[in-house]
Amino acid sequence: ISTSLSVGRILTNLENSCATPLPVLRHVADAMAEDMRAGLAVDGGSYLKMILSFVNTLPTGNEEGLFYALDLGGTNFRVLRVQLGGKDKRVIDTEFEQVSIPQELMFRTSEELFDFIASGLARFVQKESGKFSPARGRKREIGFTFSFPVKQTSIDSGILIKWTKGFAVSGAAGRDVVACLNEAMERQGLDMRVSALVNDTVGTLAGARYWDDDVMVAVILGTGTNACYVERTDAIPKLNGHASSSGMTIINTEWGAFSNGLPLTEFDKEMDVASINPGEQIFEKTISGMYLGEIVRRVLLKMAEAGSLFGDPVPEKLFTPFSLRTPDLCAMQKDSSGNLEAVGSILNNTVGVRSSLTARRVVLEVCDTIVKRGGRLAGAGIVGILQKMDNDSRGLVFGKRTVVAMDGGLYEHYPQYRRYIQDAVNELLGDEVSSNVIIEHSKDGSGIGAALLAAANSKYA
Length: 461
Ligand code: ADP
Prior knowledge:
This protein is of the alpha/beta class. The chain has helices at 5-17, 22-41, 86-89, 110-126, 177-187, 200-209, 266-274, 282-287, 289-307, 326-333, 341-351, 357-392, 409-413, 415-434, 445-456; strands at residues 51-52, 64-72, 76-85, 91-100, 140-146, 150-154, 157-160, 192-198, 215-221, 225-232, 248-252, 402-407, 437-441. The strands form three sheets. A six-stranded mixed beta sheet has the order 1-11-10-9-12-13, sandwiched between helices. The longest helix is centred in the C-terminal third of the chain and has 36 residues, at 357-392. 47% of the residues are buried. Residues 73-74, 222-224, 289-290, 326-327, 330, 408-410, 413-414 line the site of adenosine-5'-diphosphate (ADP). It comes from Stephania japonica.
């Protein structure tokens, strides 16, 4: 590629500082395992919170009956019911609905928000047809997936630490979100029991585990990122001997906060400083969907200003944060035409630039560099978790088939990213061990996972 001297120099510098050769991957995997141990030792012992999920019983496939799930994690909430038929019949029937939350409710009181959710749920329950059979003399049970930071206090209670993702609801922080939901259901005259409060990664793990006993880890790669895994209670010093009867529990790592030894650039640092949570969630800012497009935009802006990549003057839109989004990178990388027509029109539509063929090639190089770093670091993180589990169990993980359940829009839709995760896992573990590690897409497992956890933790069991 022939480009101006400074564009070439910026690209080379970028590639060098984003490089993830084996020693870097190994350092990240080792550091992830170390930080996990520190977080399990004492609360606050690590960047990784290693939150106890209180999920000590995983679905086995034997669950029977009608269960509901409610998923609140963003601008939509989803409700679902499932009729479970035990080992042979499995999922007999399932129905779900999605309701978008009116923008204005994100700025009102928590009562108003929970009333809106409870009334949607009540309407959904009313539509229950004869295909579903609630157990006589029992309340309907529901699993509640709530993807905001919660201090879990039991399987069916947890204190909201703070709203995130643009929610500015008043009055729920510091309160038990299950109590908030229960009170709203009562106001709606809806008689249900919340049997499990779960984080979305935990729901994904449970949903995948229902079909496959070898699922040990779940990872979400969407707008943000998180991971959870099955841990032995005797490997959790901060439990102070409060072992569960099953001897296991799911740990929600909150791995987005990891930051040890990541190959970062000036662009990452500037994006972090400009973010609403500077200094926090550095792993998330390097690997997740919300940020990959923005990092690329920042690189392109520098190339435009210092090296006239798109001619003069630099268009206004290229200065606008988040004008280039991760799905745009993905769409550009799909373009296999000779003159990169699609790359040109995406660049024009998103950041308002007109581009030469040479410039389009540079843009694709930048996308690949950032996506490659993200995918490979996510892969190293996964290996870190598996390595921690394997060391503690003296070879019980790598010596047998182990499944990592993946979900989230970034993982689902970005084939190059997915490939880079797998490459890093293969490089770190070698052919023999990595053939035992199955990284598998578990689509929308978290909804049904919450219903399964309500079943596994039924009040009537
Ligand atoms: P969320 O994480 O917001 O709950 P999802 O798991 O559906 O929801 O993930 C949505 C994210 O996935 C988007 O913010 C975007 O970063 C990423 N994404 C969605 N579609 C694509 C795509 N076609 N290519 C790459 N990334 C995508």
